[in-house]
Every structure is written in C-alpha cells, then in structure tokens.
Amino acid sequence: MPGLRAVLFDLDGVLTPTAALHMRAWERLFAPWCSQQGVAPYTDADYFAHVDGRPRYDGVAAFVASRGVELPWGSPDDAPGDGSVCALGNRKDEIVNRMFAEEGIEPYPGSVRFLDAVTAAGARVAVVSSSRNTPTVLAAAGLADRFEVVVDGNVAARERLAGKPAPDTYVRAAELVGVPAGQAVVVEDAVSGVAAGRAGGFGLVVGVDRGVGAQALREHGADVVVTDLDELDASVLDHAAGEGRA
Questions:
Q1: Same domain as 204, residue 125
Q2: Roughly what angle, to the nearest 10 degrees, separates helices 168-177 and 191-199?
Q3: Annotated catalytic, 10?
Q4: Kind and range of the H or E element at 125?
C-alpha cells in the first residue's frame, strides 16, 4: 500500500488556469477603486500578498486594509458596489462570472495527467477551494465528475469552516474521503494554501509555482515545489508522511 492514500487539490492555479483569470478580475475591480479612493494603484503583488487563496470577502478586506481604507463588512446579500466589503466582493463575483462565460476555461493538461495517475493508483481525490464558483468552474473544465468530494466556499460558509491559511477546509476534505490528514497530499499554488497544508499536519504538501515563487511556497510550508504537475506521477504516494520536509 502507498504511504499516502488521498490527494487534495486546490482548484484555481492547480487544476485550472482560473488563477490568471481571477487575477485580471481583481485588477478590473480594484484599479478603478484605487483611483476613486486616491490610494496607491493595485498591482499583481497585491494579488499574491492579500487575495491569493483567501475567501473572496477576506481578500477584499485584506486589500482594502492595506490601503488604509475602512469599510463596513456588510452582508453577502449586498448588491454589487463599493459601499461594503461584501458589496465589493459581489462586484468581483459579477466580473469573474462574466469572464467565465465569455472566455471559457480549460484544465491544465499536466494536472489532468497527474489526476489520472493518482486515481489509477487508487488514491481518493477531492477539491478544496475558497471559491464559491467551484462547481461552475469544474463543470466548465469537464472535471465535475472526477471528484467525489468538493469542499468549496459554499461548504465552508455552511459548515462555518475557517478559510485558508487555516487548515480547516483541507481537514474537512480528508474526513470526507475517509483518510487521516497524515496520509493525504495537499496540492496548492498559493502561500495561504501551502500554509494550510503544513498547519493541518498533512503527509505531503506540494506547491505549484504559477508565479508566487518557489522560495515563498517553501517558506510557507511546501515540501516539494514544481512548476507543473506534469513533473509528478503516482510515485508521490510512496512518500512517508513529512518525508520532503527539512
């Protein structure tokens, strides 16, 4: 039997290149907002520092705070706008869903090959994402039927699970696939996600460097860093728990 029995995948930037699309959506949200507020312009560095991997409203709150602006939290029912954290988050959701409809989405070929390899080897698999759009993205990418367990922003809200970098959503996914955290692999492209994997005591944390930087991923908890999952195969399941750690 392999040392590790499950692989828990982040979605955006790991299975699908939606991270790049989300980056552009956040820029479309915050570029005019920064101009209107008279604060420093939004940059890609802000995405990685404040938004990447976090639940949407948490990302809004972190970025707004970074510019010294105070906004009420509001309610998830707020209309898209700029009067509250939730209103800004809902505007971002509106922007990104329009982009999904206009541009579509294809999964990373290397990630699909890795998914094929680990499932053929008998590993249980799940998707763990902060995004509430996860079902839409999985369906658009043709991956919806590949995952028996999905723990996304909707599940986190319903079950009151803390978002990444807290390990709660990954721990919940491991429970649902019936594998202890120490026998599961976490695959992430965000520093908040690899930090969640390390905090949860998972057997192996794989960082996929889509732009945040290999060193940053290692510093926050990745045991192994690759630029594409095509660099890995089912032999990752043979790792003993924590084998890649210094």
A1: yes
A2: 60
A3: yes
A4: strand 124-128
pLDDT tens-digit map of 86-102: 999 999 999 998 888 78
Tokens of 135: 């079902």
Mean pLDDT of the chain: 93
| Length of the chain as a residue count | 246
CATH number at residue 161: 3.40.50.1000
* Measured distance CA(147)–CA(168) in Å, rounded: 19
Say how far apart CA 81 and CA 224 lie, in whole Å: 40
**Residues ≥6 apart with Cβ < 8 Å to 43:** none
Please indicate whether residue 12 is annotated as part of the active site. yes
| Residue 244 pLDDT grade (very low, low, confident, very high; cuts 50, 70, 90) | low
Q: Which two tokens stand for residue 157?
A: 């809200």
- What is the domain count for the chain? 2
| pTM (2 d.p.) | 0.77
Which residue in the block uniquely carries the two structure tokens 């990444």?
A: 164
User: pLDDT confidence of 242, banded at 50, 70, 90?
Assistant: low
Residue 129 backbone phi and psi in degrees, to 5: -140, 145
CA–CA separation, 160 and 101 (whole Å) = 30
Of the residues 10, 78, 189, 209, only one is catalytic, namely 10
Q: Report the chain's terminal Cα–Cα distance, integer Å.
A: 25
Distance CA 175, CA 173 (A): 5
pLDDT of 240:
64
